[in-house]
Structures are given as C-alpha cells and as structure tokens.
Design brief:
This protein is mainly beta. Helix content is 11%, strand content 27%.
C-alpha cells in the first residue's frame, strides 16, 4: 500500500491540486478531482469509521502523473497493508 508519509503536512497536497474537505460526519482530508470527473480522496481523520486503519492511504484511482509527482517529491512511502 502507498501512503503519504506521516511527517508530511497534508496541506502540502494543495500544491498538487488537492482541496481540503470536511464532510457532514466530521471526517476530513484532501480531495483531488480528476479530468474524468472522478475523485481521489486522502483521509486525514476519519470520524465516521474511527477504526479505519488506512489514514493517508493513496487511493487506487489517483492519476498516474499525479502519483509520480508525489513520489518524485518524496511525499509517499510504501507500507504493509494490514487489512490484506
């Protein structure tokens, strides 16, 4: 699994086109709207499902060029996915 490193301030994602959001259940993080209308969401705090283990997880639907930029700039790390 790929995730944003713990020592990265998620506000850095705004440089890549992500927008901060808070939903009605007080879950918050950053959302990226792709050209095809799809969204990639990186959760910072999940208040809907507090035991959700994959905070900062990079979603599978993230555009590859965006993922490349995040990796190139040192924001991403590979970690073991404990849910599998």
């Amino acid at each position: 699994m790929l995730k944003i490193k713990d020592n990265v301030d998620l506000k850095e994602l705004e440089k890549y086109g992500f927008v901060y959001f808070i939903n009605g259940c007080r879950t918050y993080g950053y959302s990226y709207e792709a050209l095809n209308g799809g969204y990639s969401i990186i959760i910072e705090k999940n208040n809907e499902f507090p035991n959700y283990p994959n905070k900062r997880k990079i979603p599978l639907n993230i555009p590859q060029d965006l993922l490349y930029d995040l990796i190139k700039d040192g924001l991403v790390e590979k970690v073991e996915d404990k849910d599998e």
